[in-house]
Design brief:
Elements: H1 8-15, E1 22-34, E2 39-44, E3 54-59, E4 74-81, E5 86-93, H2 106-117, H3 119-122, E6 136-138, E7 144-146, E8 154-160, H4 170-183, E9 192-198, H5 206-215, E10 223-226, H6 230-239, E11 244-247, E12 250-253, E13 256-260, E14 266-271, H7 277-288
Parallel strand pairs: 8-9, 9-10
Antiparallel strand pairs: 1-2, 1-4, 2-3, 4-5, 6-7, 8-13, 11-12, 13-14
Length: 310
């Protein structure tokens, strides 16, 4: 599938006068949804030789076409470009159903997780907009770190285990945070905090996490690798819908990257690994610049990416 990231104005110019409507297949990550304006903002990749990747708004004909869309969702749709307007149609959310060892084990993993944790724990999985309960874990420097201490800041959380060696899974998830660290050097600590929680706390003690953190040149004051008692790790992973199960020395697990806004609410819970570090950065930047809770998101023509070191 071709991927598209471009400004609507550019598309209209490219359509040219007198030409029939053009259609493009688009895949992107949703950053914002504005039902009152019948639009959504998505971070889309480029079309080689045509347009560069960027985040931009897309109009829809009917507000109901936005049903089910939420920040962090990966969507596929058709962009229709007419002479004087453009709009998105046939919007579909791409569901992620894969785990590290074998894509066919996804349903088995969820069932095993239900048996090991109990249904009551799984019911605590948060939905976007809900306040994230406080938790306290230990970071790579041996310090107690609680979510509450980052009140007023945007917090990005992912889930990894250090023994994972597959490049498309934990390594890719950690690398995404490495890219955030490079993209937002001026905001880390003051406005943005990164938390990586291990779901293998028996092995991943602080000294192990410290060695792992050095791989990513992580600043221990702004990117915390966290471990703790097994029951507490299970509670926290359950909040974000993370499934994992020990399988012959390895971990079968799902992949989640969550963003908590300045009000302590879950802004997005991105599942899987089918997104780019730039798209995650666009999502974080959107949440960093979001206005006070309860107001409509501001209209955007695009989300400019910080020109920090890459």
């Amino acid at each position: 599938m071709k991927r598209l990231g471009l400004l609507a104005a550019c598309l209209l110019v490219s359509a040219g006068p007198g030409l029939m409507a053009q259609q493009f297949s688009v895949t992107g990550m949703v950053l914002e949804v504005n039902r009152s304006r019948k639009s959504f903002v998505a971070s889309c990749e480029d079309i080689p030789g045509y347009m560069k990747a960027m985040a931009m708004p897309f109009q829809v004909r009917e507000a109901k076409e936005l049903d089910g869309l939420a920040p962090g969702a990966t969507v596929e749709f058709t962009l229709v470009v007419e002479k004087e307007s453009s709009y998105a149609q046939h919007i579909e959310i791409r569901r992620y159903e894969s785990v590290e060892q074998d894509p066919l084990t996804a349903e088995r993993l969820k069932q095993l997780n239900q048996l090991s944790r109990g249904a009551s724990n799984l019911q605590k999985t948060l939905s976007p907009g809900q306040v994230v309960p406080d938790f306290t874990l230990t970071d790579q420097a041996g310090r107690e770190i609680s979510l509450a201490q980052f009140s007023g800041k945007v917090v990005a959380i992912n889930f990894i285990y250090t023994s994972c060696s597959l490049p498309n899974y934990c390594l890719r998830i950690a690398n995404n945070f490495g890219a955030l660290q490079k993209r937002f050097p001026e905001k880390l600590g003051s406005d943005l905090v990164l938390l990586s929680v291990t779901f293998d706390p028996v092995h991943d003690q602080p000294e192990v996490l410290a060695r792992y953190a050095k791989t990513w040149k992580a600043d221990p004051d702004t990117w915390h690798f966290l471990t703790g008692p097994v029951p507490e790790v299970q509670r926290i992973t359950g909040l974000f819908g993370v499934d994992y199960f020990l399988n012959e020395g390895f971990m079968d697990h799902s992949l989640h990257t969550a963003i908590i806004d300045r009000q302590g609410k879950l802004a997005a819970n991105v599942e899987g690994n089918q997104f780019t570090a730039d798209q995650l950065g666009d999502l974080v930047q959107t949440i960093l610049t979001r206005r006070a809770a309860g107001t409509e998101p501001k209209s955007q023509t695009h989300v400019a990416r910080d020109a920090g070191p890459k």
